[in-house]
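Troubleshooting log. The previous structure file for this entry was overwritten by mistake, so regenerating from the original sequence record. Sequence copied from the archived sheet and checked twice against the printout by T.R.
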Amino acid sequence: MRIGIPLGFGMLALAGVLGAQTPADSASVTALYQQWFGAAAQQGPGAYASFYAPDGYILPPNSPAVVGRDSIAAWMQRAQAASPYRVRPEGITVDELRFLTPEWVVYRSTLRGQRVPKNGGEPVSFETKYVDLLHRTGAGHWEVAFRMWSDNR
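Regenerated output below.
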C-alpha cells in the first residue's frame, strides 16, 4: 500500500482523468464510514484501528505521525484516557468526496459536537475538520491510508 513520491504526484496529475465515480462507489465509501464509526463507538480503539491499512497513518494535531494499526489503537487508547473530556457528537458533514482514481479517494468532513468535562462542568462546543485518504484493496474493500485533523477555533 505504500505510495511513493513519484506515484503520488502521478495520481494527482491523473485525478481529473481517472477520478470518475459511480453511485455504487460513493455508496461503498459512505458504508465504510457508517461501519467504522459504529465499530469505534461500540468496540473501542482496536475496532477503530482495524479500518486502517496495515501501514496506515494518523497525523494528530501537534503530535508525530502514528503508523500501523496496533500503534493507532494504542495511541487512541492513551488519548482517550488522558483526555479531560467525553465527546458528544452532534453531527458530521461530508465536505468533499473526491475519487482520485477508482482505488484512491479523498474524503473531507467536519464533525461538530460538545466536549463534556469528565469531572463536571459546562460542555464546550467544538468543530473538527478531517482529511482522509482511502485506498480500495484488491478485495474491493476500503481502508484508511492517512488521516489528519484539526479543530476549527
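The first strand starts at residue 52 and ends at 59. Archived copy saved in two places this time.
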